[in-house]
Amino acid sequence: MRAMTTGRGASPHIERVPEEPDAVVERLRRGIAAAGLDCRCEALATAVLDEAGAEEERLRRARGLEDARKMRDAIVIVLTLLGELDSLDPDEPDRTVFHEIASLFQDVEDFAAHGVVSARRAAGRGNA
Question: What is the model's pTM?
Answer without folding.
Answer: 0.68
